Amino acid sequence: MNNPLDKLSKAELIALLGVRESQLASRDKSIESKDERIEKLEGILAKFQKMLFGQKRERFESPDQLSLPFETTAEQQQEAQQELTEKVEYVRKKSRASHPGRTKLPEHLPVEEIELYPEGDLSAMTCIGKEITEELDYIPGSYLIRRYIRYKYVSKVQDTKSPIAIAPLPSRLIEKGSVGNGLLASILTDKYVDHLPLYRQLQRFKRENIPIAASTLDGWTRQGMERLEILYDWLVKATCGKGYLQADETTIKVLDSTKKKDTHLGYYWVYHNPVDGTVLFDYQKGRDQAAPKKILEGFKGYLQSDGYASYEYYATQRGVTHLGCWAHASFCQYSWIFSAISSLV
To answer: Is 314 helix (H, G, I), strand (E, B) or coil?
Structure first.
């Protein structure tokens, strides 16, 4: 205000004093808030300094942490120790009583018996029994070279037209190859049953100092699988020949030879014969109508699947009855119920 104080009325002076007191109170409150913030920041700073420069045992100790009442008397400690001992003894006895014992080793394996006698002179002692301890061991597979020596014979009569007699070679999966049937079966089993890649099998051959080129191992595998196609054809007939077939498809990532370190999305078409329990996996690059043609074309009987259009196409073949999937039917039923309830709410 521009008016002198002596010219102000009593009411104006009181109002002026009120404004002044309000300003002072606001300043004091601001000072107190700043003091509290400074105190809080100093506490945080002290905590970080303690974490950085304090001893390890003090870094995470809080000065405000209260002590816990864990002090116990000697009598209480003795009672607790006795109770713990009784509990441990009870658990041990219970475990001994309920333990089924060591699993019996299989009886079909060959047994190598090793007899062990005490050291020293036993002539003045009598055998009163024996203890038998069994262990399951493994002898690594061994490689061998099977050399066929075929003797050739010719007639003693000096006749150039007489044939040379020689024994034929035993039947082999790869006639002109240098791999035996046993080794080829092991390679295929390791790769397709135990999922051991060929390059790891090559490392195993190298450890045995057996030089085999990667291309040779690939060729053995390819030719071995070609010989097994007759079993695949039999599996197709056995799976599709009972008149009841369940079908479904699923995706699988396949390495692409045209793209380095890249894959394309292929499809496993899976067919199950519930009568015999046989399962057939048929790989196809796509999911179109032509993908299951090799298996489903000409099928007669009950075909059970979901509502995918490719199955519906083959379900219209003469002699085929299409069955729905109960899992999908239940889902559709519950979906209808939920929709009905939602419309009523």
So the answer is: helix
